[in-house]
Design goal:
9 helices; 9 strands
Length: about 280
């Protein structure tokens, strides 16, 4: 029996904004438009975007304590498919320092004040009272999850919850020192041809790919969304005539991975962009 829906409802009653997660830790999309993040994963906040749901339906923005939403037929069905529970730390007025490996944990024990600690698969979550902006890769193996982010619920943890200190806040102000992994060779096939070619010269396609690479490279934040929108733009112009090769796609993936995207995230964004365009 799946006890996740009952656990999630209990957490919500205690004031923890929750959302259902898949086995791979990704959020569900809870409407047809956003299923499998085909909309690019952009929350339906007070700004326009692909998601047209009556309430935010995915990502951190979907986290809620509202029993009416949690008990709705659509969400009930999604919770039954969930394999783990996510929550919005900022909505719970806490900050999670996600330590992804033993080296990061050892660093935190020396440099950060002790607080509530929750074991994870590979490391630990250190939780502090207070909110701040979320930043990935503030140092090797260390992410900050608070506002506009979600984390997995792995239990209440042990230790006394400490107040967020300047030592933690300062991490968000430092440039990432992590060494980016070597970009992996692209593994997705190029789209098939058959459409009308609008590329009057090879320079047209080359200029488009170069501009797309630069757009990803220059992204100061929201890299996930930038990568998706760039892939969508490239495919909408170059994806149907057969001129787009695996070499071109590999250049886009390389640019995305240089910004910290994993090969898997690149493949998912590419697949979602093709789905959105009916390719």
């Amino acid at each position: 029996m799946n006890t996740i829906p009952t656990t999630a409802l209990g957490l919500a009653e205690m004031g923890l904004p929750v959302l259902p997660l898949r086995a791979d830790k990704r959020p569900f999309g809870n409407c047809r438009v956003c299923n499998d993040l085909a909309c690019g994963g952009r929350p339906n906040m007070a700004v326009s975007g692909p998601c047209v749901c009556p309430w935010p339906c995915h990502g951190w923005a979907a986290a809620t304590t509202d029993p009416a939403i949690l008990a709705s037929p659509q969400w009930t069905a999604t919770w039954r498919r969930a394999r783990t529970i996510g929550y919005h730390p900022g909505g719970a007025h806490v900050t999670v320092v996600d330590l992804d490996n033993a080296e990061a944990v050892a660093w935190a024990r020396i440099n950060l004040p002790p607080t509530t600690t929750v074991p994870t698969t590979r490391g630990e979550h250190w939780i502090y009272r207070g909110t701040m902006r979320s930043v990935n890769a503030v140092r090797p193996g260390v992410d900050i999850k608070s506002s506009m982010s979600y984390a997995r619920w792995l239990g209440p943890g042990t230790g006394t919850l400490a107040v967020l200190t300047q030592a933690v806040r300062a991490l968000a102000e430092k440039k990432p020192t992590t060494v980016r992994p070597t970009p992996r060779t692209v593994t997705v096939p190029a789209p098939g041809g058959g459409g009308e070619c609008r590329h009057r010269t090879p320079a047209y396609l080359e200029r488009g790919i170069t501009m797309a690479e630069q757009r990803i490279t220059d992204a100061p934040s929201t890299v996930h969304a930038t990568v998706y929108r760039t892939f969508l733009a490239v495919l909408s112009v170059h994806g149907r005539c057969g001129c787009l090769t695996e070499t071109h796609i590999g250049r886009l993936f390389t640019a995305a991975q240089a910004k910290g995207e994993s090969p898997r995230h690149c493949e998912v964004a590419w697949s979602n962009a093709r789905t959105a365009l009916g390719m």
